[in-house]
Design brief:
Number of helices: 16
Strand content: 15-25%
Largest sheet: 6 strands, mixed
Oligomer: single chain
Length: 613
């Protein structure tokens, strides 16, 4: 029969030691009368020199038999020699009461044991800080070996651990001062992980009583997917998974993203998050293009990998708003797949089904028979309410601002405007939208968090909000007026076979560059002037640059994503890419094929019918 050798587990004391059993110990030190042997960090015995059989040095492993446990708790040991493979090892676990992280404030100064998932590991100049998560919350556990030295190097992100220590407060934050930590494995780890997951699933579920703000068939049909996306965001917060929110850098994208930003930051604080750590747990980054560019994903990956190394953070959840639905996102999604990143999308651009395999959730009105009239700002506001309902009053005007910014004709816009009747007029919403576009142009890649708050009046500083918006609108309108007056004499017109008027506006040769309004908005402003001049008639406006074209249309049955795909197939040497909404979008190409691409584009547009009046 195989001999049994015991290993005294963390937290075990003299009462857990049995006379006559053999234990694995570690040599702690030497005295004239014998050798001290640690059975674990709390329990040690004396190996009398008469019972020593081999030469050992400090920290060597040794097998010892317990001869006697004296009334005063002293343990007498005898060394035994056993061949490796001739015995089995069994861990002696102390039966302890497992504390919940949410209870630590009530147990300050007391020894506790917790079982949790390791969600962050940060090495400081002093202790190693393990951020751990159980079914009730998230807290830090500080372990110290020596200054700047990694404690428990075997413990990695995602491990399930049992921590023994004392609950204390440091810098007004609750933490565990670790005396020991072991990695749970096998069924024991599975059991703890399943228990935590069950609780997190329940905690992450958005409130059941939150319904859409307006009566909308599209939103009702999208609601299950919106709840799914909100749940993924809430779970990321509960498990300390960082969130990177990428959004199109226009008023609609900003309204979508800032509504979710407001909800997430509040949800972090409500769940014990440190306000000073917001930037580590949540980042909002504007994207110039209405899709997730390689430049964007490269920046995100670089930052993500540095944070993983420097701060021991998990890889982030990527949330894309007002972008992320199109085939143009594919190259970036392939990059996220390499790193096994979680990606979710809330967008209103015409979706391409090929990207869904990369996404955990995809909210898009086209999936339920809607269209781009239900804007990203409308979707973002509803999702934000599912993440944290308490911010509803702060962001109630966001859908209206987003709707007028994107010129939505959906019935939902009128309902959202009705919700803020008496607080904001439609003209005030337009002013906020223009102010956002103007200020974001100068912010470039910066989120401008506090300036954006003032523009959208989140801070409730009405006087500053009014003065700031008025100033930005004045500057923006002056720049737009000058740009349009400069461009209009150079606009070329032709009438297509369909009866639609097609206008070409060169935004490279006959417009101010590197200033506001940028080419896309310049094209839109020229298109607005032409729509007023040719009221009731179908119109397409092309804003042409050296290697791009911006397309705006009215009453023409366009399908820009389809047109881009067919042009790309028919002109393999033109480097064509692009897309957008069905009737508003852009195309990129190589400059050497500019004339050919423009001719082909006009040919394709001529094939589209017009709306019957």
């Amino acid at each position: 029969m195989t001999e049994m050798v015991y290993r005294l587990g963390p937290g075990c004391e003299v009462d857990d030691v049995v006379e006559g059993n053999i234990y694995i110990g570690k040599v702690q030190g030497f005295a004239t009368f014998g050798t001290f042997v640690q059975l674990n960090d709390k329990t040690k015995g004396l190996l009398h020199k008469s019972n020593v059989k081999t030469e050992k040095k400090e920290r060597d492993t040794i097998l010892v038999l317990v001869n006697q446990i004296r009334p005063n708790g002293n343990i007498d040991l005898r060394e035994v020699i056993m061949e490796e493979g001739s015995y089995e090892t069994k861990l002696v676990s102390k039966k302890v009461v497992i504390s919940k992280l949410s209870d630590l404030r009530n147990k300050l100064g007391r020894n506790i044991t917790v079982e949790a998932d390791v969600v962050q590991i940060k090495q400081t100049s002093g202790p190693t800080i393990f951020t751990v998560c159980d079914e009730t919350g998230t807290e830090d556990a500080a372990a110290f070996t020596e200054a700047g030295v990694r404690s428990y190097p075997e413990v990695q992100l995602g491990d399930v651990v049992r921590i023994f220590g004392e609950a204390n407060k440091r810098n007004n934050q609750v933490q565990i001062e670790v005396s020991d930590m072991i990695i749970l494995r096998g069924e024991e780890a599975d059991h703890v992980r399943a228990r935590i997951n069950r609780a997190l699933e329940e905690r992450a579920e958005p409130p059941a009583d939150v319904e859409p703000l307006v009566d909308s068939e599209v939103l009702r049909a999208l609601w299950p997917e919106m709840r799914k996306l909100a749940k993924i965001v809430r779970r990321a917060v509960l498990t300390q998974q960082p969130i990177i929110l990428r959004h199109h850098a226009d008023a609609d994208g900003i309204c979508a993203a800032v509504s979710v930003e407001t909800a997430v930051l509040q949800y972090i604080r409500e769940n014990g998050g440190d306000p000073d750590m917001d930037n580590f747990l949540f980042r909002r980054s504007p994207s110039k293009a209405p899709f997730y560019e390689i430049e964007d994903v490269t920046r995100d990956l670089d930052m993500m990998l540095k944070d993983n190394v420097r701060f021991g953070q998990k890889f982030p959840l990527i949330l894309l708003m007002d972008n992320g639905s199109t085939e143009e996102d594919m190259p970036s999604y392939k990059m996220t797949e390499v790193y096994n990143l979680d990606v979710i999308v809330a967008d209103h651009h015409h979706p391409d089904d090929t990207i869904d395999k990369y996404l955990l959730a995809h909210v898009n009105p086209y999936h339920v028979g809607g269209d781009f009239g239900v804007t990203a700002g409308m979707l973002g506001t509803e999702i934000a309410r599912l993440i944290f309902p308490g911010i509803e009053k702060k962001i109630l005007h966001f859908p209206a601002v987003a709707g007028v910014a994107d010129r939505s004709e959906a019935p939902e816009l009128q309902q959202y405007l009705a919700l803020i009747d008496g607080k904001y007029t439609i003209d005030e919403c337009r002013d906020m939208a223009l102010a956002l576009d103007y200020e974001q142009y100068w912010l470039r890649f910066n989120d401008g968090r506090e300036i954006v708050k003032d523009i959208l009046n989140i801070n409730n500083a009405a006087d500053r909000h009014n003065r700031l918006v008025a100033l930005l609108v004045e500057e923006a309108n002056a720049a737009i007026t000058e740009q349009v007056e400069t461009m209009m004499p150079h606009v070329k017109e032709q009438v297509l076979e369909s009866g639609a008027h097609l206008f070409q506006a060169d935004v490279e040769m006959f417009a101010h560059r590197f200033t506001f309004p940028p080419p896309g908005k310049s094209s839109g402003e020229v298109h607005d002037v032409l729509c007023k001049k040719y009221a009731g008639e179908p119109i397409v406006t092309l804003g042409l640059g050296p290697d791009f074209a911006v397309i705006r249309s009215r009453d023409v049955l366009m399908n820009i994503p389809q047109m881009v795909r067919s042009m790309r197939d028919e002109m393999p040497g033109a480097g064509i890419s692009g897309g957008g909404h069905l009737v508003v979008g852009s195309i990129k190409f190589v400059e050497g094929m500019r004339s050919e691409v423009i001719a082909k584009m006009i040919e394709k547009i001529s094939e589209f019918g017009v709306e019957e009046l």
